[in-house]
Design goal:
13% strand; alpha/beta; 5 strands; binds thymidine-5'-diphosphate; five-stranded parallel beta sheet; globular
Length: 209
């Protein structure tokens, strides 16, 4: 595959979508073809699953059901949007991906990181990001930005603390494929750090092509 797959991860309210927008527009200015998408979602079926899984009507859903629904949404999204875009040579920028399942369902819900990761790897036929950008933020700060909360945002602070720790641990295991940034930093500075890293990674990929 000749494209490049970038994922943004982090807790709620860390400013992922703002930074995704900055990155997409900077890369488009350089003439690259960009596909921006999100999880859960990205296809009609996956958006339906998103509605179910985030709805407060689904309160009390079994964690296994939750993990399977996120994985089901992901398989459709990868098969129909992400993989075809990468095969066309696009840069794909995705809001959340497999690491969200590992952090939220694997760690915070306690289903086990490895099992949840394997489930998603099966669902996506092994597609992992080329680069993951983690916007790190204390969940007490992030959640304060929401008046109305979906089912996940309504979880207690401790749940979100575990999610945060999980992202940091994943990044530590493979620093060459992660960029961790303090989400409280200046918006423009974060954007330029991300762009610099992405441009370097794209050049590196080009040199191996
Ligand atoms: P969203 O409103 O997109 O949150 P954010 O703007 O913070 O990305 O809702 C996605 C929610 O679903 C978020 O709380 C994280 C959660 N989630 C999981 O629990 N597992 C997953 O695999 C994914 C992709 C998301």
């Amino acid at each position: 595959m000749s494209g490049f797959f970038i994922v943004f991860e982090g807790g709620e309210g860390a400013g992922k979508s703002t930074q995704e927008r900055h990155l997409a527009s900077s890369l488009r200015e350089q003439g690259l073809e960009i596909v921006r998408t999100r999880e859960p979602g990205g296809t009609p079926a996956a958006e339906e699953i998103r509605r179910i899984v985030l709805s407060t009507d689904s309160a009390g859903m079994d964690p296994r059901t939750e993990a399977l629904l996120f994985a089901a949404a992901r398989s459709d999204h990868v098969a129909r949007i992400i993989r075809p875009a990468l095969e066309r040579g696009c840069v794909v920028i995705c809001d959340r991906y497999l690491d969200s399942s590992v952090a939220y369902q694997g760690h915070a819900r306690g289903l086990g990181a490895e099992r949840v990761r394997d489930l998603s790897l099966w669902a996506t036929q092994g597609l992992v990001p080329d680069l993951t950008i983690v916007l790190d933020l204390d969940p007490a700060d992030g959640l304060a930005r929401f008046a109305e909360r979906d089912r996940m945002e309504s979880e207690p602070l401790e749940y979100h603390r575990q999610v945060r720790a999980a992202f940091l641990a994943l990044a530590e295991q493979a620093p060459e494929r992660y960029l961790v940034l303090d989400a409280r930093d200046d918006e423009e500075r974060i954007a330029s750090t991300i762009l610099e890293r992405v441009v370097a990674a794209l050049a590196e990929q080009e040199s191996h092509a």
